[in-house]
Each structure stands twice: as C-alpha cells, then as structure tokens.
Design goal:
By secondary structure, the chain is an alpha/beta fold. It contains 8 helices and 14 strands. Strand 5 and strand 6 form a beta hairpin.
Length: 387
C-alpha cells in the first residue's frame, strides 16, 4: 500500500522547469580511445595495420547538448588496425573516428594537459592516437591506442560580452538591440545561462552579443551563478558593462551599493577572476535613466566615472581593484523606455569594433613588415663570402 502511494505521488511530483532540465551545457567529459594496432605476421614479415585516431572536428551551429544527445555513452573508440595475414602482408589501417564539437571548444585531459583549441570551423584536433601495428621492432605485436577522459570546455565566441550585476537591465538591452528573446522580469537572476543576440544593420553587417548571468560579490570565489560563465568573457572583443543608476542590492542581508560602487565591484570581480580581462576594450552603460531622480544621480557621479582610479581611493582595499578598466564611452541610457538610446548604443558599438579591427590589422601589417625586414637582414648575414 505504501509503495503504491509512493508511485502515485511520484506521478504528480512537480518536474523541474524545462530550461533547467535541457539547459545550456558549456562543458562535457567524454572518454576517447584510439584503435589498437593489428598484429604482424612473423613468418612472412607482415606488418599490422595502425589503429585509427579519435579526432574532434569544429562545426558551427552545434551545441554540447547536441553532442551529448548524439552519443549518450560519451565514449568514442576508434576501430583497430587489421592483422597481417597470408593475403594481406600489410594490415589495413583502422579508420579515424571523427565527431563534431562546437567552435570555441578547448580540449583538456584530466591531468590538465591542453590538447588544443578549436576556434575555426572544420579545424581538427587529435584526442587519442591509434596504436602502431606489429612489426619486427615490437615483436610483431600491435600496440594499444591512447585512452583517456577528455573535457570539452566551451567558451562562447562573441564580439561583445555583457557584464553586470543581476537586474541591471542586460537582458532588456539584449532584447531591444537584437532579435534575441531572453527572459525578462523585475527580479534578479532571470538569466540563468548565456544568451547570444545578433545585432543586424541595414547594410547586412552582423555583430554578436553574449548576455551572461548576473555576477554577485564573490563571484570569483564560486559564489552565485556568474562565476561559471565568466570564462565566456575571455573570448569577446569588447566588454559592455551595464549598471543601474540607482545602485544594486541583492537582498536585505546585503548592503546597498551605489552606482559607482557597483562599477568598482564589477571591475574587482573581473580582476580577481583574470586580471587580463581589464586590458580589454570596454564601454559603460548607465541604465534606467527613466527613473525618478536618475539625472541628478548621473550628474553627481559622471565626473567620478571618468577618473575611476582616484574615485576608488577612499574605499577599503578588499573591495578596491588594483587596476581598472578604461572605458571607451560612458553612456546614460534607458534600455526599456527610450529606443533612440538603444539605437545610439548599437551604432556606437559598431564604430568601436570597426576601430579595433583597423588597429588589429595595422598591428598585423607592422609585425609582417618587421618579420620581412628581419628575414632580409638574416639573408644578408648568411650570404656567401667572395674570395
């Protein structure tokens, strides 16, 4: 009777929401094994076939969730090479086993060895090599292929990364500026996994923007949800920080942070996670400028935001970053109520990315020119001496 009641209750038990059951995956652990080499044939000097390799191939428009569903066992074992025989003195090699993974994946073994990164479509990385076939030097015995677990660690590749505390208006901005449809509500943590939006322009130019779950103080210490998504910021070209002009308070047990303190704490979290992030180009949006008293607050904090290093001096060292971001622009906006603000930000983002692309191109040309000059210099030094 008790067992029957339990079964009936299980049927009516509330299931987790769909976005939690089938959510975004940014890491996946798989087992890979190269094929074993085939045995040789000592009597006739036959050589066994080499085992197949396991190879990851980068593809656009695929997710780690799809990779998992395509092979729920998470085991990738390549075929072995064929043994040498009277009819085949040279054993046939085993075929390579290839499987598709998303662009932006880093492949790491359990021992921390980095096998490679896949940043372009159709790039390949060998995860496990097949064993050599049997031949005279190994006693005609085929060698086993490499076998080990591999972690597929995905870092989203986007032009722009949105960074901010919960409820600052990141998802509202993403929805207004692109065709993305993130969840929006009047409470924190509406974004529980990254959203990618595409900014489209009349000349068909497209720019990608990633909205990451909101950070909280201590995110670099694994507090909250944002810490596990901070890695996605590393591959963006531009950081777009968005803060509420009225400040932020996570809950009553947390202190209320002003707009300036919010900027300071966000920079501190980025610095504690990876100080290299502070070298990225960045823009600051002061959001919710449609609220009462927002203009007076902005006029009060505007000059301080332009000189962050001096503004942070009065704060204790535990919350004050050692370095700071250098914002290309500081723009007051209302992402919800003023479409003209969103359009201005959209065009400004494009202009900044275009300037960054030009600077990058100039840097490459300079490096190529220096390399060419060095080659010419080395060639002169190596010219034969006439007697």
């Amino acid at each position: 009777m008790v067992r029957l009641s339990t079964v009936i209750l299980d049927k009516f038990k509330k299931r987790p929401r769909r976005f939690l059951r089938e959510g975004f995956k940014d890491s996946l652990r798989v087992f890979v094994q190269g094929g074993a080499g085939g045995n040789g044939l000592p009597k006739f000097g036959g050589v066994g076939g080499k085992g197949g390799n396991v190879i990851a191939v980068a593809k656009e428009n695929i997710t780690l969730e799809q990779v998992y569903k395509a092979n729920a066992s998470k085991r990738y074992i390549a075929p072995s090479g064929r043994h040498a025989s009277h009819n085949f003195i040279l054993g046939t090699p085993g075929e390579d086993l290839k499987f598709e993974v998303p662009v932006g994946v880093t492949l790491i073994t359990d021992l921390g060895k980095k096998l490679g990164e896949l940043n372009e479509e159709n790039e390949e990385v060998v995860l496990a090599k097949g064993g050599t076939g049997g031949h005279p030097k190994n006693g005609f015995l085929g060698v086993k292929g490499e076998a080990h677990p591999v972690k597929l660690d995905l870092k989203l590749i986007a032009d722009i990364g949105l960074v901010g505390f919960p409820n600052a208006g990141k998802s509202t901005l993403l929805k207004a500026i692109s065709h993305a449809k993130p969840k929006i509500a009047a409470y924190p943590f509406t974004t529980v996994r990254p959203n990618i939006g595409i900014l489209s322009y009349k000349d068909l130019r497209q720019i990608s923007m990633a909205d990451l779950p909101g950070l909280i103080e201590g995110a670099h210490k694994n507090k909250g949800m944002g810490h596990q998504f901070l890695k996605h910021v590393e591959r963006t070209k531009l950081l777009l920080m968005i803060v509420d002009i009225n400040g932020f308070q996570l809950s009553p047990q947390y202190p209320h942070r002003s707009c300036l303190e919010t900027v300071m704490l966000l920079i501190k979290e980025l610095e504690m996670y990876n100080e290299e992030l502070l070298k990225k180009p960045s823009m600051l949006l002061i959001n919710k400028m449609d609220t009462e008293g927002s203009l007076a607050c902005f006029n009060e904090v505007k000059e301080k935001l332009k000189n962050l290093k001096d503004s942070f001096k009065d704060y204790p060292s535990e919350v004050r970053p050692e370095n700071t971001l250098k914002f290309c622009d500081i723009i007051p906006v209302s992402a919800k109520e003023r479409p003209e603000d969103v359009e201005y930000v959209k065009n400004r983002l494009r202009n900044i990315l275009d300037v960054l692309a030009d600077l990058e191109q100039q840097e490459k040309l300079k490096e190529n020119s220096e390399m060419y000059h060095n080659i010419k210099q080395k060639m002169k030094e190596r010219q034969p001496v006439r007697v």
